[in-house]
Design brief:
- Helices cover about 30% and strands about 30% of the residues.
- The protein has about 475 residues and is an alpha+beta fold.
- The longest helix has 18 residues.
- The radius of gyration is 24 Å and the shape is elongated.
Amino acid sequence: MWYDGLNEKTLWEIFEEISRIPRESGNEEGIRKYLLSWAEKHGLKADKDKIGNVFIYVPASEDRKDEDPVCLQGHMDMVCVKTDGSSHDFTKDPIEIVCEGNTIRAKDTTLGGDNGIAIAMALAIASDNTLSHPALELLFTVSEETGLAGAFNLDGSKISARRLINLDSEEEGIIYTGCAGGIDIEINAKAKTKEIDKSKAVHYQISVSGLLGGHSGGEIHKGRANAIKIAARIMHRLPDFMLTDISGGTRHNVIPSLCSVSFVTDKEYEDTVISIVDQVREEVTNEFKKKDPGITITLKKLDEVPSEAIKTKTSLSFMEALYLTPAGPQAMSADFAGIVETSNNLAIVSLKDGKLCVSCSTRSLVESARNECAYTVAAVYEDFGFNATYKGAYPSWEPDPSSPLVKKTAALYKSFFKKKPLVTTIHAGLECGIINSIIPGMDSISIGPNLFDVHSVNEHLEADSVLRTLDFLKYLLANI
């Protein structure tokens, strides 16, 4: 097996078993059955709630039966992205894991280390009868990646613990004590069409690809390019066109790495189109040569000119709105150095069912700033006469400076690693804030191993970091 050269075989065996199970957000039945079966096999009590979250109860070791329980928490679902040309079917195919030295990745797809590694670590601890720990309540939620539905609909009565260790963080050596809240903006516009004079028209497709993409919370500060914004930049400069198709992005929490736009324009603009694409390609290549060096922009002249296309006014207005949409960090935190306070991800654009559609995801550590950014995004489209709606709002997780769990974890980290951890907040959304609001008195932290380029086909885990994190988690539970 790919993990033959790694320590902690039980951990990696579990991770391999999880990776064989399709678990895209909304399709968690297979992983839920696995978890419930795993608990039964190990003689542990397990339960689920109406939304489909799974609870596994691990008795305390003999010397710890009088202590209060601790909850270990992660989510079951994963973001499913694959390379261009991949035939992988996320509804039935297992993730093919590749181990290259200290790097664990997947072949042509996202790995699912976010958050499969949390499940693997929690189950590895639950199955080790040699460890000292208080009673453990393992909580695995559904649909974290697509609106935090599991956390929002959590049956809090099934959790008695008032200390929660979330295992959904992606940087070793950091104890997260807070996170951004978020809200999604959905835009749609009727794509009325008009007949084309084929004798005067030419049909083009612009494709933007090769971008790094990544997590719209975890990687938003890295200055990576947005494929939809690049496509809109080109279209903004064209003098006249009518859209025939547009597609870009995959998930609301993924920085889009692909976008294609098809359009017709007058034959007299052929040289102009070529010149503008060449110019933007040169600009973008220079601008992102260090932060996103793999960008490819292609212009293809299509053989067939369609009989109709989206009306010129709608086409021009829609692309102008995309061009004006805020994307990336909008403000940095005044309280936490180097942390993004507010951002917007221009995430998805499509033409479907006769409508031009856009999805944006706004995040902020400050609720009013989150709302103001979302209102700004919506106003861009509303000014062009397009409809904007809001959905999926979730609260930020506000840091608690007096948290006993934070202080204890930081002290034990220093004792274990002989160095201080970084105690801070994160721009990515975590479930802790929602769980804390449902279960009064819950004291939460979030930790995790080094996990890179999540929500992209470049996602990979650092194996040694996973083992160090697991060892520290055992130490933390032994001394908490």
